[in-house]
Hints:
54% of the residues lie in helices and 7% in strands. By secondary structure, the chain is of the alpha/beta class.
Amino acid sequence: xxxxxxxxxxxxxxxxxxxxxxxxxxxxxxxxxxxxxxxxxxxxxxxxxxxxxxxxxxxxxxxxxxxxxxxxxxxxxxxxxxxxxxxxxxxxxxxxxxxxxxxxxxxxxxxxxxxxxxxxxxxxxxxxxxxxxxxxxxxxxxxxxxxxxxxxxxxxxxxxxxxxxxxxxxxxxxxxxxxxxxxx
Length: 184
């Protein structure tokens, strides 16, 4: 299975698990999964990771940045159906109350910011992957809850995954499904 990690899951891994990894078992596990392309990181997520929580992700797991050829490039990525994806953005992905209270120019800016964000690129990747192969064995790993509580114009990753029919799990669920075991 391909596990696409978002920024929040990488930060949680680096902040809450890595400091207790005295034997470097977790470090080696994550490195191996990344090198085998089972843990996938988008360029937009890598970029956000550089500036989130003082860059703790790349401090804990420098191999992510060192292996740029394993980072999924999304700069030129387009949806398989621009019209369908745009309709989903406007009608399903956005928070209706915020959109109604925002003038069209500001909404257009918010929409572009979302599309350029790690979350937007992650959902676009899922949208395209699942269109190309409806049975693709893909999953998003995130620490976000499905409930919007941050005043942003677009829904959270778990809610967006549900819309595009992508599987979504937490970091704890991911780790519990793997053969890696934490020993304290």
